Amino acid sequence: MDASSLLDRTAAHAARYLAALDSRPVGTTATFGDLRARLARPLPETSTLPEQVIDDLVHDTEGGIMGSTSGRFFGWVIGGTLPVALAADWLTSTWDQNAASNLTAPAEAVVEEVCGAWAKELLGIPASASFGFVTGCQMAHTTALASARHKLLRDRGWDVEAKGLAGAPPLRILTTENRHESIIRAVRLLGIGADAIGYVRGDNEGRIDVAELDRGLRDGGDRPTIVVLQAGDLNAGVFDPFAVSCRIARNHRAWVHVDGAFGLWAATSRKYRHLLDGADQAHSWATDGHKWLNLPFDSGLVFVADAAAHRAAFAQNASYSVPVEEMRNQKDWNPEWSRRGRGFAAYAAIRALGRSGIADIVERCSAHAGRLVAAIGALDGAEIAARPVINQGLMRFLGPDGDHDRRTDAVIRRIQAQGKAWFGGATWRGMRVMRVSVCNWATTDRDIDRAIDAVRAAIASARG
Ligand SMILES: *Cc1c(COP(=O)(O)O)cnc(C)c1O
């Protein structure tokens, strides 16, 4: 079979998958055992026809593909895929550009340049900030904190790129309990160490307490410090008070990093933009393309106000990477060397939606989350643990014996097993909760109605 026929056949498989999304179970139906039984063939010693490999792949993974692109998937903060972004992603694989440099991927280099500027405008980040297209928020944090590490230590006379951290003034991180685990991993990877994280108390809503932040910074003296703030935390979508926090941090020469994995996109919406007031005063920002922008995995973006610090942390000259005049070389701003051209899908999505289309996704998802949380909260035996600020909320289910944690987990398991909608659990402030996360462009009012019915049915069956 020639390449063209193989791709047509594959496109038909993809189209069938998308068409069935609305009717198939949202969760998975195959066990790991089922999947292994089909997929774990002995190492092939000889060749197999490409069309058979593709057909088998579709068949053998059946039931093991999580329906996270479905409009009724509300687990984690995952997001779906815009058809236009999927199409651009297919082209990205077809063109197979090595996005490491502007020599190997000139069009990608320009698309990243354009998209980086667009993203800054959309997200309210200063136009002078540098940027990088990374795999996700995890690497965006790592890149931003590496830039912070460079700058804070250089200001104290230490060249971390040359000398490493042994003997350097010890860095520290101040953040709240709302921080995502990926912050801890970035801190570990960068050699700063998780013990260097100090937790600042939050207020009732979980926003950083600015008096405590000030005290924490004061206590550290001149110790180089990175303050990590949340623009939409993963559980309740909490936004820290940026303007005051940034002012305080700057008074103490601290670096402010904003985790806006999904929440930064609120900047596109007139209704929610105020939540980010003052966030433009931070030093670095991390966000995802694969969450609220609904790009396919993987796609993250990092921005650094001090472009020189960003470049100093990553640029490395190799004799064979001849600089092309006046053109940004991608790997000077990225932790990866060879990599995928992530700019094409982002470019396609932003162009297709425009600012208003992105704002529409943000506002629609948030309205859906509000309705879903209110409706579930009104069901007998359910309670709202955290009302959404934007698109994230938390529920719990009340056991007649007072064991609400057990009931909450039982209801979640039943919803997942029934397959009409998918929610996940978490432990939040010491209790088990069901997370409600709406970040898929495809979610409709009908999906919300069906999800509410699914929760009602699961409560009834957990009771029975
Ligand atoms: C998802 C998420 C992350 C991690 O992002 P990845 O893209 O999975 O690396 C970090 N912070 C928050 C708030 C998130 O929601």
Q: What's the CATH architecture name of the domain at 87-349? A: 3-Layer(aba) Sandwich
Structural class, from secondary structure content? Answer: alpha/beta
Strand content: 5-15%
Kindly report the average pLDDT value: 96
Total DSSP helices: 14
Topology:
Blueprint: H1 3-20, H2 32-39, H3 50-60, H4 83-95, H5 106-123, E1 130-134, H6 137-154, H7 160-163, E2 172-175, H8 181-189, E3 197-199, H9 210-219, E4 225-230, H10 242-251, E5 255-259, E6 284-288, E7 300-304, H11 307-314, H12 343-377, E8 382-386, E9 392-397, H13 404-418, E10 424-428, E11 431-437, H14 445-463
Provide a concise account of the structure shown:
The chain is an alpha/beta fold.
